[in-house]
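Standup notes
- DV: blocked on the single-chain target, sequence here:
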Amino acid sequence: MTGPAGKFLPVPSPETAFWWENCRARRLLIQRCKDCGSHQFYPRAICSSCLGGDLEWVEAAGTGTVSSYTICRVPVAEAYAADTPYVVALVRLEEGPTMMSNIVECDPESVTTGMPVEVVFETRSEEITLPQFRPRQAAAE
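- DV (later): unblocked, structure below
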């Protein structure tokens, strides 16, 4: 599915629809297993740690650190040409799970492994708002 300007859009599934609804409301949710207490992302029907099926949605702190990243200098499609260079990163959330996302609102060359980041949201369509991350702002700001 593509959205405005021809950019790719994810297609919500029954397992992810609730997650996408909350992204639209600018809330980052992850799942927590009621049996073992583990947090997980991406949304799924069973716990990836203990295989239990008693999962609940909890709001994530929205903070984490960059585990790994790459700077994309060649766009994946023409729709992304104006965005290059851009950063695709693995972000380890404070709660433990890792998300793949973009690092935004900074010079791509300034991104480092271990960089503290916080979630921001980008509306791509009526249905899809993407969680992305930016360098974490100081608490006093």
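- Follow-up: Residues 17-24 form the longest helix (8 residues).
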